Amino acid sequence: MGAGARAVARCDELGSAPYSDDPAGLFRPYLGPGHKATLERISAWMVAAGMTARIDAAGNIIGRYEALVPDASALMIGSHVDSVRDAGRYDGMLGVMLGIEAVAWFAERGRRFPFAIEVIGFGDEEGSRFPVSMLATRAVAGSLAEQPLDLTDRDGIGLDTALHDFGLDLEHLRKAARPREDVLAYVESHIEQGPVLEAEDRALGVVSAIAAQLRFRAAVKGVAGHAGTMAMHLRHDALAAAAEMVLAIERIGNAGTEDLVATVGHMTVRPGVPNVVPGDVIFSIDIRAGTNTVRDQAADTVRAALTDIAHRRQVTLSVELQQDLKATPCDPGLTRLMEQAVQTATGTVPRTLVSGAGHDAMVMAGLVPVSMLFLRCRAGISHHPDEAVMKDDVEAGLRAMTDFIERFATSTVDGAGAVGKADGQLTEQKPDLTGHV
Ligand code: HGY
Ligand code: MN
Ligand code: MN
Predict the structure, then answer these.
(1) What is the mean pLDDT of each run of 10 residues along the chain (437 residues)?
(2) CA of 127, closest atom in ligand 1
(3) Confidence (pTM)
(4) Residues 53 and 160 in one domain
(5) What domain range is 276 assigned to?
(6) Which atom of ligand 1 is nearest to the CA of 80?
(7) Considering the domain boundaries, does residue 426 fall inside one?
(8) Closest by Cα among 348, 383, 386 to 190
(9) Closest alpha carbon to 19 in 121, 104, 155, 103
């Protein structure tokens, strides 16, 4: 089995129990039993690839392939191991598996660098368990300082309890932060989760920037009442108000520029029974755009529209900001290296594109320069069980990743690279990168 095929097979293996908390499909929430089983499995694959493996204080799995010299800074490669509900098998996980395959490729050839290579599987990127996302990524990047940690999931389980049950301690969560000098750069390969590469018949793409996103929690409070006896003209129906708000959000998203998207993905209705006029509704709002300005203007328009609806319907509204991820440019120097790597791996001029989906790289950009490689996915489908990739594309992705690492080594050793100098010398032998089995 080729390395690319093995990466796909491993994502498939991890797509069901015991690596999923959903017996009927894939749901791997942060710190759940599926997460735990997955880290044990990935740890074994990391060791087999020639790395040491550890779980950090935030529940991330980290494999390390040592450098030519001890205690060297690391090029970090990774993505996330958690998933949304009813997920596809490749979102996040494929990037972790490709990192492991890239290290295995070098280890099999006895190739080491002036820097270490670390492969990281972030435990929480999706925010599918607790109300905010990228918790485990922000722990590594050292950007959790402002984040309240008194979070609870849908079942009322607190982050502190979930960490404790996982064998970790909330008090130590922030100790997962990596000193800037530990990490030279962060590189993430990920499925595109969109239609562009398939539409242009391309296996790979290079990410120039990642769209800005805001996540809100909106709460509408009306008056609950008997569905049979509360006259229509006397009602302050929280769900009817929320429904009008959802359509307003959709209208604002549609009226904006091409890159603007606005989504209500989750809603709870209380008391949530057929014969009671809803008194309380809580729903999520996700607003994204290629620039912070477009994103923020849309958010202001949404707030004004929802306030107007609440006033007219005489319900109360609160909108709480839960997540603010700024538009993230990838490092120009690393992006140039990735474009050259894709050209070598595919023989075609690379396609550069903006990512509408959020990624761990957005947060890691707060610590180090970042670069992203996209792989084609069928019909652009993602966050859905029909998510699919082609093995040949993953082989091409692996060629691009190993070529990128060689280019990165040359650039850092020459000191002309996008990131600081490495200490130590390259080995004489430079394997023929076209020799992928
Ligand atoms: O929401 C996103 O864009 C990512 O899949 N977490
Ligand atoms: Mn996702
Ligand atoms: Mn993802």
Answers:
(1) 95 97 97 98 98 98 97 97 98 98 98 98 97 96 93 97 98 96 97 97 97 97 98 98 98 94 97 98 96 97 98 98 94 97 97 96 97 97 97 98 97 51 36 37
(2) 6
(3) 0.89
(4) yes
(5) 212-325
(6) 6
(7) no
(8) 383
(9) 121
